[in-house]
Amino acid sequence: MKQSVSSEQELAEAVAAAAGPLRIRGGGTRDIGRPVVGEVLSVAGLSGVDLYEPGALTLVARAGTPLAEIDALLAGEGQRLAFEPMDHRVLLGTGGEPTIGGAVAANVSGPRRVQAGAARDFALGARFVDGRGRVLKNGGRVMKNVTGYDLVKLLAGSWGTLGVLTEVSLKVQAVPETEATLVARGLGLAEGVAALARALGSPWDISGTVHLEVGEASETRVRIEGSEMSVRYRAGALAGAGFAGWEVVEGVASAVLWREVRDVAPFAGDGRVIWRLSVKPSDAPVISAALTAAGLVHRGIYDWGGGLMWLALEDGGDDAGEGLIRGQIAAHGGHAMLVRASEALRGRIAVFQPQPAPVAALMRGLKQKFDPRGILNPGLMMSEHDKAAG
Amino acid sequence: MQMPEPEADILAGKARIVARLREVLPNGAVIDDPVALKVYECDGLSAYRCPPMCAVLPGSTEEVSAVMRVCHEAGVPVVPRGSGTSLSGGALPTADSVILGVARMNRVLETDYDNRFIRVEAGRTNLSVTGAVEADGFFYAPDPSSQLACAIAGNIAMNSGGAHCLKYGVTTNNLMGVTVVMADGEVIELGGAHLDAGGLDLLGLICGSEGQLGVVTEATLRILAKPEGARPVLIGFDSNEVAGACVSDIIRAGILPVAIEFMDRVVIRAAEAHAHPGYPDCEALLIIEVEGSEAEIDHQLGRIIEIARHHEPVALRESASAEESAKIWKGRKTAFGAMGRINDYMCLDGTIPVSELPLVLRRIGEMGEGYGLTVGNVFHAGDGNMHPLILFDANKPGDLEKAEALGADILTLCVEVGGCLTGEHGVGVEKRDIMRAQYSDDDLAIQMDVKDVFDPAWVLNPAKVFPLDASAPRRLAK
Ligand SMILES: Cc1cc2nc3c(=O)[nH]c(=O)nc-3n(C[C@H](O)[C@H](O)[C@H](O)COP(=O)(O)OP(=O)(O)OC[C@H]3O[C@@H](n4cnc5c(N)ncnc54)[C@H](O)[C@@H]3O)c2cc1C
Predict the structure, then answer these.
(1) A383–B contact, CB cutoff 8 A
(2) pTM, 2 dp
(3) Chain A: residue whose CA lies nearest to B201
(4) Of A31, A60, A28, which Cα lies nearest the Cα of A44?
(5) A-B interface: how many C-beta pairs under 8 angstroms?
(6) CB-based contact (8 Å) between A143 and chain B?
(7) Where in this chain does the record put each FAD-binding PCMH-type domain (chain A) (predicted)?
């Protein structure tokens, strides 16, 4: 069964009238999380940009608006979404059209996260329908707003479990004149991550830092964006500060490199289990080495200076490598998410990082308030295991 | 402004509570001497004052936890306090409350340049965070004007901003993790040296929660490498409209200065008389600062000046030296103080869409005239965060009430044009009772539901943020 709605009011009525669990769907491209059993409720019908003020860097769009439409509109004014949301279709092999509501609800942020911030940092306001079918709002459409609690941050990354987003306000960014990428090949992971840390610790406003170990030789990339003269200046400055000998890739060719990183494209098109770890960047080489030593063979894309580890497992075994990977998280901090795996595995293994009991209790408490009947994407983020704990 | 009546049985039990607090804290950490308590009877919104029952100054997360256990058990309200510079009465006590000050907790716990963060105790002042890393070429970006005094604890509670937030974001965009003592004394950690949350973003919820969800005792903050240089340009216009249009054109052109500050004639004159920064006498003044290498700065300022020239500025001065830059900024940074020398003032903090600047500035002028009060404007123009300063005479009967009424009208206008009541100072007690101008009862109820989850007994800073009548059933149900 599938319900589609074309207005916020209809959506609120559908939620209020729901007799059982609902699977909230935007474009359906981000099939992530514990599989949810329930009736599909699509917000794709809530589409359209309500307001766009290029001179104020603000955009207000209904949640079901396709990202492609927003990208095109912004590009027309020389602007863009700074948080560079990943297109999950590439990695997950899903169909459909990614929507802005989905990108915000999943807090999807790309390589520029290290410099500009995450989706949640650009979300200024939201309208949403809670589990009782009430239409609520929080935040607004201005860049600075501390009026009451910041529920927008809470909703960003709540994967539709607390409320169904109907409209989001975003801060947008001017597209810089040009970009360039410095590339080195054959560095080891520890060496690569150390080089990225040097770049990020420089005054030259680096907007992308990744180390890839996907094929034979590794590749390490550093991105600079800005005006022609500024990009040239900073590329030169980096060369004089330990990055001599790195190849410089400019303009469109540089953009192609980062689209590949954004979409984790090198891991597309096969059935390997994919984990996504967020860690302290300098821990990435340590964690990878420990996993290898324990026999968990993997390839990796280390974005965010190493802090975002995408691991493709050759063979994770029965638990898809969970025991070893979460063991590393327990030792070093951070969190790990099982992004790509069969439904069966995602039903059995906690997809999202299980939280310590007092924190899990707060999350359950919030869920209870926002969705007392437990009908919005139930179980997607919290497994039965989490529910039992604490 | 009204505060809830202090609870008689709490007041009656004062001696016992003070004794219990003395048992769990070291010598000297509990203050109940009426003279010593004077320091804690107000914050930066000094029009409202009330001494607390007592104040405690714990020295560690464990001691904060012990305090919370005692107060939670006894049902005593706790008002967390950093440096007490809040401009919205966020740290204002009630007579039956305990002030929990974190000022003694000011150590740096860890600095990590490879991973670009610093971990500090929450009582550390904002400026001294940068102070701890600047010799190594780093800085902490959010820079409230009060940065010499205000604490990271208060910055997190208010999600504070500053002049340079146009480029670097406000506190929430630079906060990576916190240690929080919950209302019942339990200690939790959120976030850390990694980015983003593994579950729901509770860190984002804590930031800006005005001391109502938990007591922040430690924080992991993002630090950045200092740019090679920075330089401002000063541009004067003969109307606010034109200055506003210039701001919009600069942003549209894709230039992202670190700061765009705006002052109107009232403030320009006050600043000039006070700090002598050499400002031109005009209707509106912009200070625009850019960063980078010398060549990058020249390039960006060149583009900004080109755009400004289209708007026929009456004055245009590019700083040529560090000294000149400091002078340009001095006038802006001391503008509040300069206004304070003219008269008492009330500082508002609404944000509006940048496109509405001309209209709102004109309406503020007209509304001020209607009340017979002068209003000066100095604010962060790049992001629309206004700071109308209403001048009044606290010694003149009725003047404060008039200023309050004008303030409420101005903030309502901010909301009407698509903005909000407060951009960086917080709701506190000051804007508590006009929250309905921005939010429906349901919008407020879901926020109070969040407080119910974190602090079911409403022990933490209970009389703030929400209209008193709206929070009453929950506060009294405990
Ligand atoms: C001259 C002047 C200029 C200012 N300029 C700016 C500016 O440019 N930008 C800006 O954003 N603000 C500005 N402010 C306002 C104020 O400085 C900020 O709100 C600041 O963050 C408050 O910090 P504080 O340590 O003084 O907090 P306090 O005033 O002590 O407390 C503020 C709030 O934080 C809560 N709190 C304090 N400690 C904790 C804790 N440990 N855990 C949980 N909650 C806690 C309190 O309960 C209260 O609600 C200015 C104030 C003044 C007086």
Answers:
(1) no
(2) 0.97
(3) A154
(4) A28
(5) 261
(6) yes
(7) 1-175
Average pLDDT, chain B: 95
Question: Which residues contact residue B206 at a Cβ distance below 8 angstroms, ignoring those fewer than 6 apart?
Answer: B156, B178, B180, B190, B213, B214, B216
**B318 has pLDDT over 70:** yes
For the Cβ of B178 lying below 6 angstroms from any atom of ligand 1, the answer is: no
Give chain A's radius of gyration (CA, Å): 21
Tell me which chain B residue has its CA closest to the CA of residue A307. Answer: B194
Mean pLDDT of A89-114: 96
Q: Is B189 helix (H, G, I), strand (E, B) or coil?
A: strand
Question: Which residues in chain A have Cβ-Cβ distances shorter than 8 Å to B202?
Answer: 154, 359, 362-363
List the single best residue of A135, A144, A332 to mutate versus B (max B Cβ within 10 A). A144
**What structural domains and CATH numbers belong to chain A?**
2-174 (3.30.465.10), 178-262 (3.30.70), 266-348 (3.30.70.240)
B89 closest CA partner among B463, B430, B470, B475: B430
B454-472 pLDDT, tens digit per residue, is 999 999 999 999 999 999 9
Domains of chain B with bracketed CATH: 8-101 (3.30.43.10), 108-225 (3.30.465.10), 230-336 (3.30.70.2190), 343-416 (3.30.70.2740), 440-476 (no CATH)
- Residue B137, Cβ neighbours under 10 Å: how many? 14
Q: What is the mean pLDDT of residues B198-212?
A: 97
Q: How far is CA A119 from its chain centroid?
A: 8
Mean pLDDT of chain A: 95
Structure tokens at B25: 């804290």
B207 and A153 within 8 Å at the Cβ level: the answer is yes
Report whether pLDDT(B87) > 80.
yes
**Model confidence at B131, in pLDDT bands (50, 70, 90)?**
very high
Q: Which contiguous run of DSSP H or E holds residue A168? A: strand A164-171
From B257's Cα to the closest Cα of chain A, the distance in A is 12
Cα of A56 vs centre of ligand 1, distance in Å, is 27
Element (DSSP H or E) covering residue B249: helix B240-252
Section A114-131 average pLDDT: 98
Residue closest via CA to ligand 1's atom 48 equals B90
Q: Going by DSSP bridges, is the β-strand pair A22-25/A39-42 parallel, antiparallel, or unpaired?
A: parallel
Contact: B200, A366; criterion CB under 8 Å: yes
Which among B189, B418, B465 has CB closest to A141?
B418
Atom of ligand 1 lying closest to residue B157 CA:
34
What percent of chain A clears pLDDT 70, i.e. is strictly above it?
Answer: 98
Q: Is the per-residue pLDDT at A168 higher than 80?
A: yes
Q: Report the interhelical angle of B14-24 vs B61-74 (nearest 10°).
A: 160
Question: How far apart are the CA of B112 and the centre of ligand 1, in A?
Answer: 26
Task: Please report the pLDDT score of residue A389 as a whole number.
Answer: 38
- The candidate with the shortest Cα–Cα distance to B226, out of A204, A83, A55, is A204
Query: Locate tokens 């200065």: which residue?
Result: B257
DSSP letter string, A193-247: HHHHHHHHTSSS-EEEEEEEESSSS-EEEEEEEE-HHHHHHHHHHHIIIIITT-E
- Please state the φ and ψ torsions of residue A376, each to the nearest 5 degrees: -90, 110
3-state secondary structure of B231: strand
Name the H helices within chain A: 8-17, 67-75, 88-92, 100-105, 119-122, 151-155, 189-200, 228-238, 251-262, 284-293, 322-332, 343-348, 357-370, 384-388
Q: How far is the CA of B154 from the centre of ligand 1 (A)?
A: 4
Report residue A107 as tokens. 């807090």
Q: Name the band, by pLDDT with cuts 50, 70 and 90, for residue A384.
A: low
Contacts of A281 in chain B (CB under 8 A): 114-115
